[in-house]
Amino acid sequence: MGTKDTSTMNNNTTKPHIAFIGLGNMGAPMAENLLKAGYALSVFDLSKAATQRLQQAGARVADNPKDAASNAQVVISMLPAGQHVHSVYLGDSGSNGLLAELPKGTLVIDSSTIAAADARTVAEAADKLGIDFLDAPVSGGTGGAIAGSLTFIVGGDDNAFAKAEPILAVMGKNIFHAGEHGAGQVAKICNNMLLGILMAGTAEAINLGVKNGLDPKVLSDIMLQSSGRNWTLEVYNPYPQVMENVPSSNGYQGGFMSKLMQKDLNLAMQTAQDTHVETPMGAKATELYTSHTVENGDKDFSSIMGRHDVSLLSYTRYS
Ligand code: NAD
Q1: Which amino acids bring their CB within 6 angstroms of ligand 1?
Q2: For 285-316, what is each residue's pLDDT tens digit?
Q3: 188 is catalytic
Q4: Which of 4, 188, 263, 299 is catalytic?
Q5: Whole-prediction pTM value?
Q6: How far is ligand 1, taken at its centre, from the CA of residue 188, in Å?
Q7: I need a surface site. Which of 9, 13, 74, 234 has the fewest CB within 10 A?
Q8: 204-252, pLDDT tens digit by residue?
């Protein structure tokens, strides 16, 4: 595991040129941190609004992934799901994607959360072309992406990991080498299955207290100093207006969309099924997020709070 040492990395004059693909809630602030650290960036996203933000920050906006990577030694992607990663790197036919256009020795870092099997498929195709591929999903949310304090959980070989580490250290604080290709994704879905369980459970506990006359902030403060303490209470309280600068105090906008949490829970359930591992709590969280996502897929995953009281979903800004 490495830690950030900006003193040496940010003064390096031979920084590689980076192509960054996927500039959503996570990708945009990650790319901005690379620009701030002095990396030259070419960016691509299907959304014009997303690329405009990066253009203003100093990136070159490309017309397509190939154009973005045209003079890059490193490609980073932050895409929604496995099918997007497959389509960008492998293309429709499996061999007409971006990988086929990259010179040997290019380092490709995919930070999207996708199935370990999909990451291994792309890694295998990259390997045949002499390209280094790493699965490097992240934890830490949009707050961590903005602050440059993400946790990267990396799968792939040692040499590629060593090349990637100084770049990841610009965007993250903790960088774990979990193992071979796909290992980063396995660790990530274990973490997110637990996060889904914790968020659904925290919302349920706060609702029980509120329905029994407690103030949600008082109850949250009590649980924060008691044995129910967890990450959602510390930095991501799901009840509106308990905490500033979190999605629950902003109409559940931004953050980590419920449909992405549902995707991750499904990935965990698939892995559990394939490997004959029992995950009853994960199965319950998957069931809750699956029904919640029907109407609230684009809202942050803390909006699971609204299962208990739909009026909470209409809160707007923290005042
Ligand atoms: P997002 O939907 O906000 O962003 C994804 C971006 O990818 C969008 O801007 C979209 O236009 C773009 N895109 C889609 N297909 C594309 C293509 N073919 N070519 C170029 N651009 C394309 O999602 P996000 O919240 O930034 O999450 C990205 C990944 O990170 C997901 O896999 C998610 O599970 C994971 N993740 C998210 C968070 C979080 O808190 N949001 C935290 C950890 C991990």
Answers
A1: 21-27, 44-47, 50, 78-81, 84, 87-88, 112-113, 138-139, 141-142, 255-256, 260, 264
A2: 999 999 999 999 999 999 999 999 998 998 76
A3: yes
A4: 188
A5: 0.90
A6: 15
A7: 13
A8: 999 999 999 999 999 999 999 999 999 999 999 999 999 999 999 999 9
